[in-house]
Write a structure and sequence with these properties.
Layout lengths: L2 E7 L9 H7 L5 E8 H4 L7 H18 L6 E5 L1 H11 L1 E8 L4 H16 L3 E5 L21 H11 L2 H4 L41 H10 L12 H6 L4 H8 L4 H19 L21 H9 L5 H13 L4 H14 L4 H11 L5 H12 L14 H8 L4 H6 L15 H16 L4
Parallel strand pairs: 1-2, 1-4, 2-3, 4-5
The chain binds a DNA duplex (15 and 15 nucleotides) through helix 6, helix 14 and helix 19.
Length: about 425
DNA sequence: CCTGGAGTTGTCCTA
DNA sequence: TTAGGACAACTCCAG
């Protein structure tokens, strides 16, 4: 068994322009790529989870690509620490390469792995790949992290150099993969999942869409957004490549990628946002947390067509248009006075493109509790939002065709009344300042 | 240290 | 009909 390096795929499921993989292939030793289906995560997911299906599909594609180089992906199922021990027994592992993951649970996992490997004299090296700027790369002059987006984005743009977006020429070193016969990959059902054929969002995005993004993105009936979230989430698409592609086409589109870096950076510096408000005063809000109200919101039966359309789109497709994400989130937190964490959890279960940092940031923005969030008195009026962004009710008709019939429920709470109630409850919690 | 301008995506009321 | 200010101040950030 020759000495090798492992490359551990996580949320970077591509061969091209992959930072950690590039460094592994240049390391001088043959590189064996591996993937671990994390038992601790999988066991909490429903049998039909489309994200597992997406990952599985991406791995099959990787397997096919690797076969062209006489290599194979070694896919395992178990807890990462145990699997890593197995891998070290099965191969003469000298080092492990990966790309960094900034979620607290992933940081803890990697720390354990690092120590396990170190005890065996094996190195563990992780690289920046998931974002353009990480950790402390974009900070204020005094060395502290930004908590307001606009000045962060200004600094981000001024710091950006061409090399930040340059692709890692991974494929030029593909001959350095460890050569071995193809290994069988566990099927979806062997992993405890099932998946009907499903059209995942395309990885191809038309330059025209990006150029038109600012003008089109707010109208949920239009195909004005890229739907690339899932590809960025699992790394089937390189964020560097997308940023390079879009930077001269649309400032607004690039801004969305900067938001992505921003929330990753916030999560890294302020991990308390996972469980609580970024602004502590917002932990004092007396949420009503009515379980029946919550169920109606989840099912898309609130009697507000735009809200129900969004929830039904989410339930049916694993996607919800961004404008509608804001409307449904505002409705849950402010009209129904349900804890943003409930909504965050529901989105986390349903969204194909779910990403902890972005989902948490978005929900805290909507609830008003986050950094640089919507002021609490800014309460979306679902009817006005409909007039502005779905004036012909095209989106509503698609998802709530019965919205004008007697089969459709009346609004579960009147807007003006909910608004007054929200202002009172928030005002009570925030009285006396932050 | 002080100062002034600004802050993702809104809504409502009044004149 | 429509434009403009109130909503609540507070904190962030750069010069």
């Amino acid at each position: 068994m020759p000495p090798i390096h492992l490359f551990w795929f996580r949320r970077d499921l591509r061969l091209s322009d992959n930072a950690g993989l590039y460094h592994a292939l240049k390391s001088g030793l043959p590189v064996q790529p591996v993937f671990i289906f994390d038992h601790d995560i999988l066991q909490h997911l429903p049998r039909h989870d489309r994200r597992v299906q997406f990952i599985h599909q991406a791995l099959v594609a990787l397997q096919t690509e690797l076969a062209q180089w006489g290599a194979t992906l070694d896919v395992r199922h178990g807890t990462p620490r145990a699997v890593m021990q197995d891998l070290c027994a099965d191969y003469a592992v000298q080092g492990v390469f990966a790309n960094r993951d900034y979620e607290p649970s992933a940081i803890a996992r990697d720390k354990d792995i690092y120590h396990d490997l170190q005890a065996k004299g094996i190195t563990f090296r992780a690289f920046k790949d998931h974002v353009i700027f990480e950790k402390n790369e974009v900070i204020k002059a005094d060395g502290t992290p930004y908590t307001v987006f606009t000045p962060y984005a200004r600094k981000w743009r001024s710091a950006l150099q061409p090399f930040h977006l340059q692709a890692y020429p991974t494929q030029s070193y593909a001959q350095n993969f460890y050569q071995q016969a193809p290994k069988a990959m566990p099927s979806l059902s062997a992993l405890g999942f099932e998946g009907a054929p499903f059209d995942f969002p395309s990885i191809e995005v038309a330059p025209d869409l990006i150029a038109q993004y600012a003008a089109q993105r707010d109208y949920p009936a239009k195909n004005g957004t890229s739907k690339l979230g899932v590809h960025l989430r699992f790394g089937t698409l390189s964020v560097r490549q997308l940023a390079a592609q879009s930077q001269h086409l649309s400032d607004i589109f690039l801004n969305e990628l900067i938001w992505r870096d921003f929330y990753q950076m916030i999560l890294w510096h302020f991990p308390h946002v996972v469980d609580g408000a970024f602004k502590p005063a917002y932990n004092q809000i007396a949420w009503r947390n009515d379980a029946d109200d919550f169920a109606r919101w989840c099912e898309g039966q609130t009697g507000y067509p735009i809200v129900d359309a969004g929830m039904r789109e989410l339930n049916a497709t694993g996607f919800m248009h961004n404008r509608v994400r804001m409307i449904t989130a505002s409705f849950l937190t402010k009209h129904l006075l349900i804890d943003w964490r409930w909504g965050e959890r529901y989105f986390a279960q349903r969204l194909l493109d779910f990403d902890l940092a972005a989902n948490n940031g978005g929900w805290q923005w909507a609830a008003g509790s986050g950094c640089d969030a919507a002021p609490y008195f800014r309460i979306f009026n679902p009817y006005l939002q409909t007039d502005k962004f779905d004036g012909q009710a095209q989106y509503i008709k698609q998802w709530v065709p019965e919205h004008q019939s007697s089969a459709y429920p009346p609004p579960m709470i009147e807007h003006a009344q909910a608004r007054v109630r929200c202002l009172a409850v928030y005002g009570q919690a925030l009285k006396g300042g932050n």
